[in-house]
Amino acid sequence: MSSSAAANQVRASHILIKHEGSRRKASWKDPEGRVIRSTTRESAVSQLKALKEDIVSGKAKFEDLASRFSDCSSAKRGGDLGPFGRGQMQKPFEEATYALKVGEISDIVDTDSGVHIIMRTG
């Protein structure tokens, strides 16, 4: 990889909550998709807002909540997606990540996968 490509990479962790509108209605914690199919987008968003409040207020760590609540397989790494460059993630996710400063947490981001909050880590 050229150093300029590496220089343009970001690193992020996220918490994904899937809902009835998600492309894949199953996850490691809900393999049958029973919960996901009955979760509205509104309810997914309010879950995420509550989690973000706990992180921002210092009540909980991002990694801990990600490993318990995220519907992404990155949950087992505390939500860490590792480094990525432009064009590797869904567009809304990429744009939100690049707009953050390191250590900042995004507002709710919608993708085909579900709703996310993203913390830029690098």
Question: Which terms would index this structure?
Answer:
122 residues, alpha+beta, Chitinase A, domain 3, four-stranded antiparallel beta sheet, 5 helices
Describe the structure.
The chain has one domain (3-120): Chitinase A, domain 3 (Roll), CATH 3.10.50. The protein is 34% helix and 19% strand. The protein contains five helices and four strands, in the order αβαααβαββ. The two termini are 18 Å apart. It has a four-stranded antiparallel beta sheet, with helices on both faces. The protein has 122 residues and is of the alpha+beta class.
- What is the count of structural domains? 1
Radius of gyration: 14 Å
Shape: globular
Average pLDDT reading: 95
Q: Architecture in CATH?
A: Roll
| Structure annotation, total helices | 5
Main sheet strand line-up: 2-1-4-3
Q: SSE order, as H and E?
A: HEHHHEHEE
**Major sheet attributes:** 4 strands, antiparallel
The structural class is: alpha+beta
Cα end-to-end separation: 18 Å
Strand proportion? 15-25%
Reading off the top of the CATH hierarchy, the class is best stated as: Alpha Beta
- Contiguous runs where pLDDT drops below 50 for at least 5 residues: none
Care to count the β-strands?
A: 4
CATH fold node name:
Chitinase A, domain 3
Please bin the fraction of helical residues: 25-40%
